[in-house]
Every structure is written in structure tokens, then in C-alpha cells.
Amino acid sequence: MTQSSRDRAPADDAAGRGTPGCPTSPRDVAAAERLLTAGRLNVEGRLVQASNATLYCTIEHEGRAANCVYKPVAGERPLWDFPDGTLAEREVAAYEVSKTMGWGTVPPTVHRDGPYGVGMVQLWVEPDPDIDLVALSRSDDDAIRRMAVFDAVVNNADRKIGHLLPPGDGRVYGCDHGVCFSIEYKLRTVLWQWRGKPLAPEALEALDRVAKALNEGPLGTRLSDLLTPDEVDATRRRVDLMLKHRIHPYPPEDWPAIPWPPL
After folding, report:
1. Which regions are flagged for Basic and acidic residues bias (predicted)?
2. pTM score over 0.85
3. What are 62-93's pLDDT values in tens digits?
């Protein structure tokens, strides 16, 4: 799913109304989380290329407003290798890991009720249309390298080029993390350019933060609310292995290394 206005279909005549009030930035994490948790969701349309029900919404609360994505659990399609009805919680778990790493890889994301039931709500990030996503995905950009490390931690089975969201300020956000945290090694990504190379010092620092938060801090408790015990343990093992070997992981030998289609 590519977050682009070209992919949005209007719901009734509401699309394009915009977001009145004080806009909320993904950098303002606390304000964004409050807005996403307590705000009133207004469905404006849907992302027509998404495989699961993915609704484009506006959200407003106490003078703040934003655009966001709402994925109700009721709209999830069953998958053969992930338990039914768990994708929304995996998206939130990915955000919690991102927040602990300190890189802001995933836009603010919450789990809450909405017009079509419980689901995931994530702050919308509009990518800069002038940035070539294919070239970005093949580059040695620091933000892309951070994304590769993050994907290894969460065991992302679907990092497509279209899941990269560069707003044009030097940052790169990622979306669509519903198929993460499998207990089996299923890393499938377009970002293999660092495979086998030493992890950067900032990556080792971020991994150390995650390891401590999983074992001694709130991350372990939070992930236990969103994932199975085995999935949380597998996350600990992945982080420990990366800290032990201090390199970017290699592609799996018995699993497709690149998602299809890669875009």
C-alpha cells in the first residue's frame, strides 16, 4: 500500500475536506498519540490498492486535527501464516519498538475503537512526490539504513518500496507492519544493501535500548499485551543475536528474500 492521494477513493462526498484546527506532526509524539486515541474519526475514503480494509480519515480533538489511516480488524483478510485478527496489534507493536529505538521510523500508531470496530489508527504521512522511491530504496541513506535495522528487529515480512514514506525533511517513515513479529525468520525486504555489513554505532545503541526495555523496561510488558509470549521471546532473541554478531542480517535461505511485487 502506497500512501498517496492517487490511491484514495472518496467515501460519499467527504474526501478532500482537509483538517481544520491545529495540525499535528509525527514528530510531536505525545500530542499525536493523544489525538489518535481520543479524537473523533471521520472516514473520508479508502485506499483502494490495500489488500485489507484501509480507510483514510480525518481526526479532531480539542483544537487539534490530522489525517490518519484506520484499519479495522473486521476488514483484515485471513493469512495462512499469521493468526486471524492480529494485524492491527502487530502494527501497534511495531510502533512501540520504533519509539523505543528512538528513530521515529513508524508514525504514531494506536489501537482503539472506531466507526467499524476496533482497529489500528496511524497518523498520515504524505510522501514528497518529487522523491524517487526506487532510487531511495537502493541508496545508502542513513534513514533507509535505520529502516533496515528496524525491519530486522520486528522481522518484517513485507518491506516494499511503496511502504517508504519520505516527507521531504530528511526523514523516512515506514507503513504497513501487520505481518511482523513471526517466531520464524521471515525477513522479506527490498533493503538488503547492508547484508553482512557491520552495524553502525547508532544502531548498536538503539538495539541496546530495545534489549534493556524488553528485559527491564516497559517495552516487554507492552509487547506482551499485543503479541504472544513466543513472539515476544523471538523478538528478544533477534535483538540479542544482532548485538552479539554486530552485523546486518543475511537473507533467509528458505523464504523469499524480496516481497512480490517489490513496489
Report:
1. 1-15
2. yes
3. 999 999 999 999 999 999 999 999 999 999 99
DSSP letter at 77? P
State the Cα–Cα distance between residues 44 and 90, nearest whole angstrom: 24
**C-alpha of 215 from chain center:** 23
Look-up of cell digits 466507526:
115
Q: What are phi and psi of 135, to 5 degrees?
A: -65, -40
Rounded to whole angstroms, the Cα distance separating 32 from 93 reads 17
**Inter-residue contact 55 to 69 (CB < 8 Å):** yes
Could you identify the residue written with the cell 535500548? Answer: 209
CB 1, CB 163: distance < 8 Å: yes
Find out whether 164 and 174 touch, Cβ atoms under 8 Å.
yes
Contact present, 53 and 75 (Cβ < 8 Å): yes
Q: Rounded to whole angstroms, how far apart are CA atoms 156 and 235?
A: 11
Q: How far apart are CA 176 and CA 7, in angstroms?
A: 15
Measure the CA–CA gap between 30 and 171, rounded to whole angstroms: 19
**7 has a pLDDT exceeding 70:** no
